[in-house]
Amino acid sequence: MAERLRLMPGAEIPETMLGIGDDAAVIERREGPPLLFTIDSMVEDVHFLPDIPAEYAGYKALAINASDIAAMGGRPLAALVSFVAPRQTDVEWLDAVYDGFAQAASFLETPLLGGDTAVGPRIVLTVAMLGSCPDTAPVLRSGARPGDVVCVTGRFGGATGGLRILAMERLIRKPEEDYGHPGLRLLDRHLKPQPRLEAGRRLAKAGATAMIDVSDGLVADLGHVCERSGVKMTVEAMSVPIDVDLEAVADKVTHNVLETALTGGEDFELAVTLPPDAFKKAAAAVKGTGIPLTRIGVVEDAASREGDDVLVLQDGEPVRFAQPGWIHFEGK
Fold first, then answer.
1. Domains in the chain: how many in total?
2. Helices (H) and strands (E) in the chain, counts
3. 136/237 Cα distance (integer angstroms)
4. CATH code assigned at 108
5. Count of CA atoms in the C-beta half-sphere (13 A) of 83
6. What CATH number has the domain bearing residue 181?
7. Which residues is 43 bridged to in the sheet?
8. What is the CB neighbour count within 10 angstroms for residue 258?
9. Among 124, 154, 193, 317, which lies 20 to 30 A Cα-Cα from 101?
C-alpha cells in the first residue's frame, strides 16, 4: 500500500520534505528544527479486543504514535485524535477511552489539541502526532551501512505474551491466578506500551545510522530497514534479549519462545544500527534511561549473500519462521 501511494500521480514530495517509507514524515523548515508528522489507527478486533478496559485502548493509541516519533530520534509536540464508533456504543466506554487519551498525553507531556468524532460500523481510534528533532537530524531507516552493528533496546516477546493471555482470559478476569505476577506484567506490556523517547534521542546523539520502532515484529521491522538502506543483516538469535516474564509463563502462552520474541510484534522497542565504535557510548547513554541496549547482529553488503534480507542464525544454522511478523492487509 505504501508503494502504491508513493507512485500515485501528484504524490511527488518536495525536496524539503521526506514522505512515505519511515516511521514519520519529515518537514524541513527555514528556521528551527525539522518537524515530524505521524499517524496511526487502531481498529476494533484487529488492533485491540473490544472487551478490554477502554482506557487502555485510548492510552495505547497515543503511545504507539509517540513510538514512531521516538524511532526518528525526536520528541512529541502535540496530537489530534479521531474517534469512530457505532451509534449504540456506551457513553461510559467512550469517556473511558478519552481518559486513556488524557493519561497518555500527561505521561508523554504531549497536549491534545482537538480532533473529530464520527459514527461507523466499528470502533476506530486514530491519532495524528506532531514532533520535532531539536538536537539532531532525524534518524531514518535508510542510513544503515555494511559493517554497522544491529542493536535493540529492552526485551522482546512480552507484548505478544500479554496479548495471548488477554485472548485466553478475555475480560481480564483474574489472570494473576493462572499466570501470577509475570502474567500481569505481560498484560501491561501489551496494553500500555512505553515509547522509548529518551532512548531514541540519546541514540540519535550517539551516532545512530538507522532506527525503527518494533511494532510488526523484530525480523519484519529489521527487514524494513534493509529494504530502505539497500543492505542485508545477520542476527544471532541467542543474542536477542527475551522478556523474562514471557520465559516464566512460556509453557502457557507459546510453543516457541524464540519465535514469539523475534516475530511477535508490538514490543515498541527500538531497533538501531550504529558504527561499531559508537556502540559502547550508545549503550552507556541508553543505560541512563533504565533500559539496556543489546548488540544482536551486523549489517552486510546486499551483494554479500543470496536469500532473505534478514538472516537469523542459531548455533550457526539458519532459523526459519512461518512469517517474520505482522502482515498488513492480511491481518496476521
1. 2
2. 11, 13
3. 32
4. 3.30.1330.10
5. 21
6. 3.90.650.10
7. 124
8. 18
9. 154
Cβ-contact 213, 268 below 8 angstroms: yes
User: Does residue 330 sit within a domain?
Assistant: no
* Residue 88: count of CB within 10 angstroms of its CB: 6
pLDDT per position as a tens digit, 2-20: 555 554 555 555 555 676 7
Same domain membership, residue 301 and residue 169? yes
Do residues 169 and 314 both lie within one domain? yes
Strand partners, 44: 48
Q: Which domain holds residue 88?
A: 2-132
The residues, any chain, with a CB within 8 Å of residue 139's CB and separated by 6 or more, are 71, 72, 73, 200, 203, 204, 208, 209, 210, 211, 272
Q: The whole model's pTM is what?
A: 0.91
Is 326 a member of any domain?
no
The secondary structure of the chain in percent helix, strand, coil, rounded to multiples of 5, reads 40, 25, 35
- 123, 193: one domain: no
Give the whole-angstrom CA distance, residue 133 versus residue 204: 10
pLDDT digits (tens, 9 = 90+) for 296-309: 999 999 999 999 99
